[in-house]
């Protein structure tokens, strides 16, 4: 083999090697581009997914905030409504309490009322001996009706006449002072308090206590009147 043939074969080998190298390089380039595209798509999908998650999270936060705000406003409205309702009830009770002060001004009717309250208290206690407390200003009126009250009680209960001792040391508080409307001092609009001699059984029959009982009993009806009766469905 001469030098020309050897040179020709070498050139052929070089071309072959170069072609293989180019083909390999092309394969590597294509593979790298495919991997790059795949990774790019994955990163893009991951970014999209993260954006959707962030959007959903923020949307939920907005929805929760709206619900919280609505609930807060609703509770505030309810509190204002209940407060207004309580203010009306308190005003009604205060008005009734002021009317009680006029009861003792009618001497004849108040005298009859005191006797009835004493009889009612005796019937509740059913004790042979009781201690009676009244306002100091009512002491003479109580003394004037006490015997008649004992007699009527004995007739109704079919028992002997009880012993009633008027407490000369401790009196019920006086009526509220109109000049001091904001005073929190104890006061009593009238009536009596009877107790067994040992003090274990007490019947508070003052006008103020009766008013409290009446308001507690009538409070549901009062609130219903304030709210308004629910409309009945028409057929």
TrEMBL record:
One of the record's GO molecular function terms: proton-transporting ATPase activity, rotational mechanism
Membrane topology field: Peripheral membrane protein
Leader sequence residues: none
Subcellular locations according to the entry: Vacuole membrane
Top-rank taxon, per record: Eukaryota
InterPro entries: ATPase_V1_Esu (IPR002842)
One of the record's GO cellular component terms: vacuolar membrane
Family: Belongs to the V-ATPase E subunit family.
Protein name as it appears in the record: V-type ATPase subunit E
Species: Arabidopsis suecica (Swedish thale-cress)
